[in-house]
Amino acid sequence: TMIPSLTQLRLKLGKYDPKFNGNSMQCASELCERMLTAMFTAHCASSPAELFRYTVNSAMQCRSCKDTWEGASEEGTLLPITLASNRSLQSSIDVFLQPELLQDKKCNSCSKCRVDRQWSLHTAPHVLIITLQLNYSANGAKLLSAADNAVTVNVGQHRYEIFAVVSHIGPKQV
Questions:
Q1: Rounded distance, CA 113 to CA 63, Å?
Q2: pLDDT tens digits, residue range 94-131?
Q3: Residue 171 CB: number of other CB atoms within 10 A?
């Protein structure tokens, strides 16, 4: 299977422009079209979805007895992450990868409800697509300030260059 390198894709796609403020659907459509064209031009033999496929695994640990075990494993093409309070993409990724206390999970060894879950990127995709889940105010209004991001982000041991950011602005859809 020949998958084009990120450098080959970048040359075909162009550089990320953080000041671009186009229509999000047009931007996403254009990005997908350019990526598929780049794959075809580079004679990529694998499915387009394989460029985007990731696997995350969770490790579980009891805070009381320190027992550890494997948790869930999930795979997909769109990695959903909650936007961090400082509205930074990198901070949002870092928070996603930190241990999280699960209030309703009991330890198999000591039966206490003090279990942490920690996600890790097990299979890193060539192209990572992150969907930031926004928080809403008490009255259901979407928080409208944009997420801050650099030109690159780190996800565990993997570093990704940002090709595009699509922001959806408007009221919460019910």
A1: 9
A2: 999 999 999 889 998 998 889 999 999 998 887 888 88
A3: 10
